[in-house]
Automatic annotation (TrEMBL):
It comes from Triticum urartu. Pfam families: MFS_1. Keywords: Chloroplast, Membrane, Plastid, Transit peptide, Transmembrane, Transmembrane helix. This is Major facilitator superfamily (MFS) profile domain-containing protein. The lineage of its organism: Eukaryota, Viridiplantae, Streptophyta, Embryophyta, Tracheophyta. Gene3D superfamilies: MFS general substrate transporter like domains. GO terms for cellular component: chloroplast membrane. Residues 1-44, 95-114 are annotated as: Disordered. It is found in: Plastid, Chloroplast membrane. It is a multi-pass membrane protein. It comes from the Eukaryota. The chain crosses the membrane at residues 233-255, 287-306, 318-336, 395-416, 436-457, 469-487, 493-516, 528-552, 558-580. Probable anion transporter. GO terms for molecular function: phosphate transmembrane transporter activity.
Length: 601
């Protein structure tokens, strides 16, 4: 029978273990016919008879077709012009036209039947592997899919990798910032410090923090945020590690904390410049939240691990361990760069600023090495339109709002563990554990606020309006909860903790408000603008933290010392922000040129 049909076709049949026909899952099609290359109109009676006989003979010879599912089809084992199939696998299927199969012209049998194939497995079966080879192929594919990728950031876009590394640096940043707020309790007992002295020690960090803001922003623009960030992490980590050595000598202790502040002070400007130059407007709130959200996570880790480390290894060990983490980060950060030699290096760097319609920076910054001459650095400093910055009402609104937010944040960050210990009568471990709650809540709020702001902007809401809404939430919420906590209502301690946690957590809406406005106004000068506002914002760390300690010693009232000043600044900051804030882009270079032209006339 096979030879008869082969003669009708003028070619021999191929043996085929499985075929796929357009039939029901259970039974072969009733109208199945064996198609031959010769059309019915051109057949002789004898050829037509042989074809009908072959078709009838094939009907009872049925075999099972393994199928991707619980059902199996009963199909003929051999048929002309039908494509051979192995086990059918999802995801590797293609449809053939009549030109793929050799079935003759368009209307021929190959065009009438849908044919699917997994090409590599067909070749494997033709080599004699059969079902066993196909199963081996599938197992290898599964093993490849389950193979872990290392390092885990392999394949991510460069800007995401560096944003993640920057966020990790900010985690370590706040770990080194809050470790003293926990260690200050046993240190005060050991050295006999009063609250005023402890406040002086804690506020010394902010002296260096304030001094480094403008230089940090300028250097980030000049030599690149990556270089400035690495230098800052190294400085603050080494200064943290030497604190136990100089703790008994007050000038040395103050100087070490000033160096920690200098190292951490350059980091926000460097990070802001990276975000401004690489992240489009629609993603900016999330990028800022990821980077600066590392601060809240660092506070959690610092307050979580510092107490057991201090109780088991002594207060000195917490500075050694946390300082070592920063040094390790510097080494790993270098390794991450070296692992990606084929990528577009320094995509986040200031030297490679890009222009385009994706919202990235539109200005070009020339490449500068760290060996830039003093003359070039001086010229670069003169090129900054300082005067135009301070003529802008929006910039002044940012300055005062940053001051107000920093007062509440820094005073609470420095004094809450002591407040919980003395006012709520919690021991060191419990006070530190309770102090973790506000940063934990901040992490949750950050994950909500950032998409909230970005979605509003993407849906067409004015950017200025979005920034005002977020900043108003960030200020009015903690003000309200601090009022409830400061009034003597006879509330149990856990209610006071819940109020403070909720208020401080909601203040993180500022990451989608104030902290995005620097990039909104000027991507080119975002780092310098943040340096300006952060310099003023560091003053509460110097004055406010020390003032709280002095007021506690004189008034013995936490409500008057800690909460009342913060409430005042939150309310006045809200009024100024809603009145004068703006996210409209400003071309400060153009404004400076116009001012110069007017003065020359």
């Amino acid at each position: 029978m096979r030879h008869a049909c082969s003669a009708a076709h003028g070619r021999s049949f191929r043996t085929s273990p499985r075929v796929l026909l357009p039939s029901s899952p259970k039974t072969p099609p009733r109208n199945f016919k064996l198609h031959c290359s010769t059309t019915s109109s051109s057949r002789t009676p004898s050829e037509a008879a042989m074809a009908m006989a072959a078709s009838s003979a094939l009907q009872p010879e049925l075999c099972l077709l393994p199928h991707a599912g619980p059902r199996r089809r009963m199909l003929p084992p051999r048929a002309p012009h039908l494509l051979v199939l192995p086990h059918r696998r999802r995801g590797a299927v293609r449809r053939f036209s009549s030109r793929d199969g050799g079935g003759g012209g368009g209307g021929g049998p190959a065009g009438a039947v849908e044919k699917r194939s997994v090409v590599p497995e067909v070749a494997a079966e033709r080599k004699g592997g059969g079902d066993a080879h196909a199963e081996e192929f599938e197992e290898e594919a599964v093993d490849g899919a389950l193979e872990l990728r290392w390092p885990p950031w392999e394949g991510l876009p460069e800007r995401y990798r560096l944003i993640g590394a920057t966020s990790l640096a900010f985690v370590i940043c706040n770990m080194d910032k809050v470790n003293l707020s926990v260690a200050i309790i046993p240190m005060s007992h050991q050295y006999g410090w009063s609250s005023s002295t402890a406040g002086l020690v804690q506020s010394s960090f902010f002296w260096g923090y304030a001094l480094s803001q403008l230089p940090g922003g300028w250097l980030a623009k000049l030599i690149g945020g990556r270089t400035v960030l690495k230098a800052g992490v190294l400085v603050w980590s080494l200064a943290t590690a030497v604190i136990p050595v100089v703790a008994g000598f007050m000038p040395g202790l103050v100087l070490s904390r000033i160096l920690v502040g200098i190292g951490e002070g350059v980091s926000p400007s460097a990070a802001t410049d990276l975000i401004a130059r690489t992240i489009p407007l629609q993603e900016r709130s999330r990028a800022v939240s990821v980077v600066f959200g590392g601060l809240a996570f660092g506070s959690v880790l610092g307050l979580l691990f510092a107490p057991p480390i201090i109780q088991n290894l002594g207060w000195e060990s917490v500075f050694y361990i946390f300082g070592l983490l920063g040094i390790i980060w510097c080494l790993v950060f270098e390794s991450v760069q070296e692992l990606q030699p084929g990528d577009n290096e320094d995509i986040l760097n200031l030297e490679n600023s890009s222009a385009g319609s994706n919202g990235h920076v539109s200005s070009s910054v020339p490449s500068k090495s760290s060996a830039s001459s003093l003359e070039e650095m001086t010229d670069s400093l003169k090129d900054v339109p300082w005067g135009e910055f301070f003529k802008s009402k929006a910039v002044w609104a940012m300055i005062y709002t940053h001051f107000c937010g920093s007062w509440g944040h820094y005073t609470c960050l420095s004094w809450l563990p002591t407040f919980f210990s003395e006012e709520l009568n919690l021991n060191l471990t419990d006070a530190a554990w309770v102090s973790i709650l506000p940063p934990l809540g901040s992490m949750v709020i950050t994950s909500i606020a950032a998409p909230f702001a970005d979605n509003l902007i993407s849906s067409g809401v004015d950017t200025t309006k979005v920034r005002k809404i977020c900043q108003a939430i960030a200020f009015l919420s903690p003000a309200a909860f601090m009022m409830l906590s400061s009034v003597d209502l006879g509330l149990p301690p856990w209610v006071v903790v819940a109020f403070l946690t909720g208020g401080i957590s909601l203040s993180n809406f500022a990451l989608s408000g104030l902290y995005c406005t620097h990039q909104d106004i000027s991507r080119e000068y975002a780092s310098i603008l943040l340096g300006i506002t952060n310099t003023v914002g560091a003053v509460p760390g110097i004055v406010g933290v020390a003032l709280v300690g002095y007021l506690v010693d004189t008034t013995h009232s936490w409500s008057m010392s800690l909460f009342a000043p913060s409430i005042f600044f939150y309310l006045t900051g809200t009024a100024v922000w809603l009145t004068f804030a703006s996210s409209e882009p400003q071309d400060f270079n153009k404004l400076a040129s116009e001012s110069l032209a007017e003065s020359n006339q």
